Amino acid sequence: MLFILLCILLFFPLLHSATSKPLASKCSTIEKFNPGDRFDDNLIQLMFLLAIKAPKIGFEIASVGSDHGRVHGLAMCRGDIGSEWCFRCLNRAIFHVQTVCQRKKDAVIWLDNCMLRYSDKEFFGEVDHNHTVLLRETRNVTNPIEFDSKVIELINKLMTKAYISPLLFATGQMKIQRVGRLYGLVQCTKDLSGGDCKTCLKSAISRISTSGGGKTGERILGGSCQVRYELYQFFDY
Predict the structure, then answer these.
(1) Keywords of this protein's UniProt record, alphabetized (predicted)?
(2) pLDDT surpasses 90 at 27
């Protein structure tokens, strides 16, 4: 309750936008904290730090507290959005994570333009294989085999660009006969090395290739990287 109250006080001008639903979330099933304990107090401070610092460059990691009350967190916004929209998205993430992952010591939440993660265990610089969600469009294309191969071709090209970029982020498009234009985006959290970013994206791409089926759009949401493709432009550049 104290955490929600603090969010209201800090982010009241933006709460009109806090009603949009998250894309997905992953919460620990065992580890919990009690309201008002050291972990709870440190989590409040951590969320404040991430919300203030992350919008400047679209990414931030931080740790607060010590011993059993220590909490680690990460905030990342999509690489093509500005600081104002980043701040708005993280505000919504903070608002929602307290409901969907109430009192959990490990949580990840994804919104359209950002993700937020915290844990009682330090995870910085490590590829996260535990928090992954696959979202798929319900519609299919008429030529799924050819289409799926083009999807993998585009995403692989973007991966090659992203993991050598300081931003660990890339977008692109490809024209496909009888379908139109295919748009793709890949992004890694900036605590990863280029090599670890590549490893994470390869794992995400393998999930797309094995799911198959010629879906008109898919997202792989992870704690360390994300992959998305659609038949419409969903990014700014």
Answers:
(1) Repeat, Secreted, Signal
(2) yes
